[in-house]
Predict the structure.
Amino acid sequence: MMREQNIVVCDTIRALALCHNVTPTFSEHDKFEVEYQASSPDEIALVKFAATMGMNLMERDQNLIHITNAAGNPERYEVLANFPFSSETKRMGIILRHQETKTIVFYLKGAEVVLRNKVRANNRATVDEACENLAIEGLRTLVIS
């Protein structure tokens, strides 16, 4: 069954807003001014990009992630498991439970050489081609599932 493209895009942006180890901090003087703390500037860049698309990281600790979605509605997720990035695995993942719907989701992101085997066989050629085209342009790639 094919999912509608707008749902896929929304889920991808949601994955960027949730699959990371970034912590937001807010200014004492301006509660709308957010700064992000993380060990990786790449992670911060992805969270900032998600924010430009309307998925804003509001709160994050070891047990909870709170975002506001593009419609301005809050979404709260319980962190069930966290698999931090390592140079050995070249990926990171997180298992979350949406507090309202109780839906459990596993987000995984990482290098295409590691994640290509996690992509359905009938979609691998598409992923391989897209990553190759980006690499030809000198760009780094990240696969999100």
Q: What stands out?
A: The beta strands are 23-26, 34-37, 56-60, 64-68, 74-83, 91-98, 104-110, 143-144. The CA atoms of residues 77 and 101 lie 10 Å apart.
